[in-house]
Structure formats: structure tokens, C-alpha cells
Amino acid sequence: MSNYYDFNSDNNSELSHYPIFSEGPASSPNPDKKPSKRNRNKKKTLAKRIGSLTLSAVLFGSVAAGSFQAVNHIYAANSPAAAANTSAGSTSDTKAGLLKTTAVSGGSGSNTGSLDVSDIAAAAMPSIVSITNKSVQEVQNYFSQFGYGGYPQTQETESQGSGIIIGKNDTELLIVTNNHVVENADTLSACFIDNNVLEAKVKGTDADNDLAVIAVPLDSISDETMSAIAVANIGDSDSLKVGEQVVAIGNALGYGQSVTTGIASAVNRALSGSSSEAGTDDSNAATYIQTDAAINPGNSGGALLNMNGEVIGINSAKLASTEVEGMGYAIPMSRASDIIENLMNKTTREKVAEGEQGSLGIKGADVTSEAEEIYGLPKGVYISDVTQGSAAEKAGITPGSVLTKFDGESVTAISQLQNLLQYYKAGETVEVTLQVPGQNNSYEEKTVSITLGSSTDTQNSQESNAPSPAGNNFR
Q1: Do 252 and 205 reside in the same domain of the chain?
Q2: Residue spans with biased composition (Basic residues) (predicted)?
Q3: Which of 168, 325, 344, 363 could cross-link to 471 by cystine, CB 3.0-4.6 Å?
């Protein structure tokens, strides 16, 4: 058996786990005998070797660890994420960087680039109202669809939209919205930020630009509601740049005020009649702000805001198609402001009882885009016949003329003219603008004053005369 020597104990009578290999034959250790000089040298040499190996291992480990840390530091310092954080001066973690983008200078708003628009929404919501339009419309009965005749039936319809409080006069609170929101309304109501609902009246409309102003009497507004609402701040839409963040607020789907945000996708965008041609350049067409902020039914007439909380547009339309997403349009305030000011100064009107409504005594038809192109007709209502003894005949209006304005408001369709006449009594005098045929197939503009007749008198006059050419009669 091999002999063992315990280096950790003075008692060498016990076996140890550290072997010592002798050159000679094995012998029992003698406790009184000291190790030879040669053995002592061997022990010293072995200890030196062990120490050298240990020191080498420590040095190698330290160098390797230092090199690893240096490589990590160099890579982190030169990575794209580190460069972005360094340039932004950001100390936030990765998740925070995903929620907010770096603020950039030169935008129209003080909060440019922030996805958090809660402050803007809180400041703007008191100036936004929800509008409900109730009207009664004629519909064909079920049997008339199969040729059995029958009388048309009436049914009440209701639609929702939005509006923006833009000011007040001595007696009224004034709200701007889209014309199509208030069109054909029998009754209008406005719901304010405190959920108080009040009746509103049409003050003025502009169908060509799809704008309208409605009014709520100040004496019907409580002190609590008056303290809760606010007049909107109007901004400069001309300074809006493509890519700037915008906020849309409105009565989406009639559920009440809601907020969406996005960017200005395009400015000065011209729209045509078909979705396939949307965005085509047309110097004569009205232009819009295009945004990818969600614009849904009920948002019409609501506000498009910049990041200063200023109204830069009036949400008007969206491009609806299965192939299209995120294309909403707003009327820029630079185009709307003058029109709104003109509408604000009009006389607020209420619908007149049917037996008291005024009449023109004409028959006519819409001038279609095809008629404009082929025959060179101006846009408006083509007058095909004038009733004998009617207000139109007394004012010198003749067949072949095109009616383009009624009491200062543009008229482009028969339905629009019929809607306007509902607010005027018989005996009122209004100005009517016409395009009268001239030489060489040209038209000359002419404005005449006309005193509206009674719808009953006009109807009796028509029944006593021979049948007139086909067309819609404006009593």
C-alpha cells in the first residue's frame, strides 16, 4: 500500500487524502524522524507550481471579464437605440419610449408628437355639442312598390351630428356645424357638455360648402350650463403641416362625445364625386384637410384640433369603402371662417306653417353635371315654366333662366330650394339671383326682388290653367 502524509495535521499517525510518492520502497513513517532535505525541496517546488497555476488562473479570469465588459459597453454605446436615447436626452426605459415620441420643434402645437391628448380634449370638450335632427319624410307604402298605387306614408326620422360653439350675440348662442347635419330638420336639439338638451334654430346655411350655423336662445340656457360650456379657440389651418398630430372630437354614432387622434395625412386635398377619383387635383374644387383620425357617422360638424387645442377644421366626411381605411376629411377654417361670419349675421328663422308658406310659382329641374358640360348651363335650378299670375311672373322671371341664389344663399338643387321656402312667409320680399340666357349661348347674372305669393293662390292658378311642362312646382 502507498503511504499518505497529512499536511494539515501534526498527527501523522492518521491517513490523509494527499498522497506522497516516494522513490524508494514503502516504509512506515517514523514520527521522530524529520523529512529529508530532498523531500523538503520537492514540497517547496510543488507548492510553487500550485501557486503559479492559481495566480495564472486568477489573472486570466480578470482579463477575460474585463474584455467582456468592454465589448458590451462599446456595443451598447454604438447601437441605434442608444444613439436615439442619447440624442433625445432620454433616461426612460424601453416601454416608455414606445408610448411617447421625441418632441420636435417647428410644429404648430406646443405638445407636438405626444400621444397623450387628454389635456387638449378636456379643454376643448366644453365647446363641442351633440346635435339631433328630427324630421318627417314621405315614403312610399308597401303596395305601391308592386304597382297597386296607394297614398304615400310619412315617418319620423332621426339623425345625429356635432357642432362647435363659435360665439354669441346679444340674444343667442351660435354653433357651427355641417349643412347636411341640419338639412330638412323639423326640430333641432343641441346637447351640451353637462348633458343639458335645448332646442336650436337654423340661422343660416351654405349647401355648396356644407356649412350651417344654428342658434340657441340665451334665455333658455341655465347659469349652470353657461358656466360649463365655452367658446372654441379658432386656429390657423394654413400653418398645418403634413404629418402633424391632430385630434377629432364629435358625437360618433350618436353615443355622445368621443375623442380620436391621428395625423394630418394631407392638406389642400380636392375631392371629386367618386371614391376612385378622390384626391385628384382640381383648382376649382373645394379643398379639405385629410386625416387618419377616425371620423365616423355623427362626427360631422365636430372639431379637428391642432396640438394647441385650436379648431383648424370642421369634420365633414369620410371615404367609405372596403378597400379604404383612415381617410377622413375636414373643412379647413381658412375657407370656412368668412362663410361662418356671414351665416352668423343672418336672421334666425323658424319653419312656417304649411298654409302660410310663401311660393315662387315656378317649375324646374336640377342642372346636372352632364347638362353643365354639354349645354353650358350654370349650376343651379333650371326654370322650365312660370305660373301665370305668380310671384315669379310679377318679378319678370322667364323660363330658361337658372336660379342660383335665394336670399343670398346658394342654390344647387330643387330640394334645397324647397327646404329654404319652408322658412319664408307669403308676402315677404327676398332677392333672387338668376343666370339669364344671353347671346352666343352665354348667361348673364341678374338679381331681382320678389314678393313671395301664397301657396294656396298659386295652386288655384295652376288648376285653372292648361297643363304645364313636366317638372317640380315651387308653389
Answers
A1: no
A2: 35-45
A3: 363
Active-site residue, from 210, 316, 359, 455: 210
Domain for residue 438, yes or no?
yes
- Taking the complete model, does pTM exceed 0.90, yes or no? no
Residue 209, classed as helix, strand or coil, is coil
pLDDT tens over the chain, length 475 residues: 444 333 344 444 443 333 333 334 444 445 444 555 555 555 566 666 666 666 665 566 665 666 655 555 555 555 444 444 444 444 444 333 332 322 333 444 444 556 789 999 999 999 999 999 998 766 666 555 566 655 666 677 889 999 999 999 999 999 999 999 998 888 999 999 999 999 999 999 998 899 999 999 999 999 999 999 999 999 999 999 999 999 999 999 888 899 999 999 999 998 765 333 344 445 567 899 999 999 988 999 999 999 999 999 999 987 666 677 889 999 999 999 999 999 999 988 888 888 899 999 999 999 988 888 888 899 999 999 999 999 999 999 999 999 999 998 889 899 889 888 988 999 999 999 999 998 777 899 999 999 999 876 655 444 444 333 334 544 4
Kindly state whether residues 362 and 466 are assigned to the same domain. yes
* Among 223, 111, 218, 241, residue whose Cα is nearest residue 172: 218
Same domain, 306 and 277: yes
First to last CA, the chain: 135
Number of domains making up the chain: 4
Whether 467 and 404 map to the same domain: the answer is: yes
Give catalytic status of residue 180 as yes or no.
yes
Q: What is the dihedral of CA 66, 72, 74, 78, to 10 degrees?
A: 180
One of 114, 130, 180, 359 is an active-site residue; which one?
180
